[in-house]
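Holo prediction. Input below; ligand is beta-D-glucopyranose.
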Amino acid sequence: MSDERTFIGVDIGGTKIATGLVRGARVLERISLPTLADRPKEDVLRQVFASVDLILERTGHSLGEIAGIGIVAPGPLDPQTGELLYSPNIPALRDVPIAHLMRERYGRPVRVENDANAAGLAEALFGAGAGYAHVFYVTVSTGIGTGVILGGKIYGGRTGMAVEAGHVTIDYEGPLCNCGHRGCIEAFASGTAIARRAKEKLRHATRPSQLLDLVAGDLNAITPIVVGEAARRGDSLALEIVEETARFLSIWLGGMINVFDPDIIVLGGGVSQWGDLLFPRLRELTPTYSILPRAAEIAIVPARLEADVGILGAAALFATP
Ligand code: BGC
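Structure of the complex:
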C-alpha cells in the first residue's frame, strides 16, 4: 500500500485493548491495556481513550498528524453509525456509540468495524490472502470471528453486520453458546470451547495426561496453546482434542465453501498456532464436507499478521473509500 498517512488502530478484545500507530502496512508503535470487560461500559471506554492518549504521548504525535482512527471490536456492530451493539463475549460492549464519542474527543475521522472483518481485510491486503480475489478469513480465539473480503473490500451484507459465521450452528442440540443459541461452531471449537472440552475430558480421564502436568494440575490454566504443546509431545488426550477440533472446523468450513466458494481460507487466532497438527487435517477433511466438486482446490492457510492483525485491520479501514 502506498498510503503514507499515519493512522491509529484500536483493537478491542476480550482481555486487552491493543492500540498502535500505523503507516501503510507497518505498526510503528504499539501498546496494550486491559479491557476491564467485566466492568461497566464507561470503564471500558476510559481504557480505549487512555490507550489512544498513551500512543499519542509515546510517539510524540499531535492529533493533527493523525489522518484517522480505526476501531475494531467483536460484533455485531454497525459500521455505518459506528455503534457497538452487542457482543456475545464482552457484555459491556452493548449500545456504545463509539464513533461519535471518539470524534467528539479527538476531532478526527473515525471508522468502526467488526474485529474479524477488519483482520480479514488486513490479511487480504498485506497478509496470507494478498493477491486473492475471494478471501474467507477465520479467527479462532475467545470466540470465532469471520470475514469475507471480495476484491479487497469487506462484504458487509445489507446492514454491514455480515458475516457472523461463528454463530452458524452445526448441531441444534449442541452446547450452549454465549450468544444464547445452541451448537454454534464457536461453542464447539473456539479457544474457550477447546479449553472447556479439555477440562471435561480430564475430569473423566482414567489415564494420566501430560496436559495436567503442563498446567501443574490447574484446570483453569488450560488454553489451546497448552493443548497444542501436549499434543506435540504425543499426549493421547490432547491429540484427541485436536482431532475433534479439526473435525468440527472441517464440517463447518465445508458448509462455508458451499456458500462462498472462496479462493483461499485464511485461519488466524491462537488455534492457528497448532500449525502442522491442524492444517493438513483441515485440508484433508474439509472438502469431504463440501458439495462443491472442486473444493479440494481451495487453499487453507495460516494467517500471517499475527498479534498486529487487529491494529493493522483497524487502520486499513481507511484504505478503501
Ligand atoms: C462475535 C464476532 C467476533 C468473534 C471474534 C464472536 O463471538 O460474534 O463478531 O468477530 O467473536 O471476536
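The longest strand covers residues 26-34. That is the main takeaway for now.
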